[in-house]
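#random but structural
TW: two for the price of one
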Amino acid sequence: MAQRVVVTGWGVLSSIGHDAGTYWDNLKRGVSGIAPAVTIPTDQLTQKVVAEVKDYDPLKHFDERAAAPMDRVAQFGVIAAREAIAHSGLTFDGALSEQTATIIGCGVGGQSTQDENYRRLYGDKAKRLHPLTIPKLMVNAPASQISMTCGLRGPAFVVASACASATHAIGLAFHMVRSGSVPVAVTGGAEACIAFGTMKGWEALRVLAPDTCRPFSRDRKGLVIGEGAAVIVIESLEHAQKRSANILGEIAGFGMSADAGDLLSPDAGGMLRAINGALADGGLTASDIQYVNAHGTGTTANDQTETDALKRAFGAHAGKLAMSSNKSMIGHALGAAGALELVATLMTAKDGIAPPTINYLGPDPACDIDCVPNEARDMKVDAALSNSFAFGGLNAVLAVKRFT
């Protein structure tokens, strides 16, 4: 028998807050984390704005010995996981440790480590590199470090599917808990991709905005790269109720698809199949949904295509949807984006507040869905979707419910 799956803890490290509460307060207020980069040199960058985790000091979270084997991306993941687990009230000892899954999304792994070692190897002609170079840059490091730090001995791995990584990871964890494979999962995403070499690569794609991110707005000019981590603790409803846990929300369904088309251009048909898959998996109809946390990158093609997919999925009900893009505030955190946005979606349903899409200058006729422009909105949300659509045509959508 399928189990209901509930959320009992969350943790966040982002460009607008170093914990989940601050993150949510700033989302509601429309605070932007987008600013000129300070952690990397910008003199050779054309596009200089990013959404960095500001004022980050690893030694506030780890002693030097613990921090040394971890790239920034793994540190972010561990910090968010610690907060989520503490929030959940769970302790992982005995059998539960061996039955808890750790499934984390990460798009590219330790980019700061890779960038620094390439500079030393090719620029400084170094004869040898740090012995922990590979463990620090490997893409599975966030899951490995979370499992080791938090004592989680069950299934542990990273899902890497570009901008859909975290949503795929959470969806797989959701299916494992729902099926009874594990009673608890620690899941989410982490990314720390703001490195000089990585940013030069993004510049070459010509999709970066020169100033800020304006999803669904006229005169939008592209996306802004962000970073951070978000982790949630999910449990079967039965497991949560047995320990009288504080239940924050419910994950109801998960849909995924592949465009099997263009490497970079989005496809409304692929998005539509993932949206419909999440609804069907959750036993929901289009009319059950009040809110969508959009992928909403701020590029001309993505925003228009996502609008088209939503109109096709929801039909006449699309006109009643509220939809917002957190990327207008936190940038595009790539492999962590889906986790940061799912936490925001759960918070929206729990508190009945839709965060705004900021930087909005006015409507684009091709994006004619209500995107909650510039100011948060009080609204009852019984069910919502969180969308992630990645390069390579990899689509993932989660459906959540306000817990009752």
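TW: number two ↓
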Amino acid sequence: MHFGLTEEQQLLQETVRGFVEGECPPTRLRELFDEGKGHDPALWKGVSEMGLAGLMVPEELGGAGLDLLELALVMEEVGGGALPGPIFSHALACLAIQLGGDDAQRRRWLPALASGDRIATLALCEEGDVWDPEGYGVSLEGGGLRGTKRHVPHAAIADLLVVATAGGGFAVLERDASGVTIEDETGIDHSRPIAKLSLDAAPAEALSNANLAVVSRVRDAALVLLAADAFGAAWNLTRQTVEYAKSRQQFGSPIAQFQSVKHQLADMATTIEPARGLFWYAAHAWDREEPGAARDCAIAKAHITDEACNIARAAVELHGGLGFTWECDVQLWFKRAMFDRTFCGTPAHHRARIGALGDW
């Protein structure tokens, strides 16, 4: 089977890559990272003007009507540039409303989200590092949400919160609704801040068509996007390390000429490049709702995010003592890879799921 990108998909990636390189070079990225807010309104405006805020939203509701594969290609470039902002969580919230909402609910919320005029986020994880939909305990009773969500991305700036509930459901509420408390959790990746969300009879509306299958499908989409983001980060670290090795002098020669360094650089490249097909195929399977799609998504997430962290460690080593410092840009992508590895479940967790889904 030949699997390649269309000209339109390649153009989409090139456009996003050019935007990231032009609007958020390393100097600007470091400023935003040090600020710790994980959001720049000017960047979000540019992202929205390109149509990325509503990439998977149907065209009739103001979006681009594209598939998860296209969104994953965008996330590869976002991860490669360590672009701050709520693209990941916003896209998942839109997807939850699209898949779980009825026609009236989609028309009410999606147009403003697709244009980027409003920002949304998705709350999945619960106390005890519970990521799987079968274990959620937040309840919606009498129109009020009760419970706690952890590690909610960009909760402080989101206008709309989409919360996964017990039994396989989604509920939508405003960030400033009564009974909503948001506490910063000070995550390691400052480009994607996370927060604890406490809900005490917070007024919310259930998405009419949401069920366990829909919540699981949204979770699986998140796994693909994290894999794509980690892939982009790993390739950027590989390129950075190659350039550093060419310029770093030791014993009168660039360290890139040393055989051991060549081997390490080759290992980094040959480890990550073949993994590209994992998230491509997982997104392809998700889009077509193939029977083994959930397992493909778990495989992509587990393998790519694990290897991205291994590549980040190698990049730190090859940068020598400089690589361990805050001043070295390597730490920006290392922390991004760490976020991608742990968010929505660790590789070990998903490898256990892979076994169960494969009837091992």
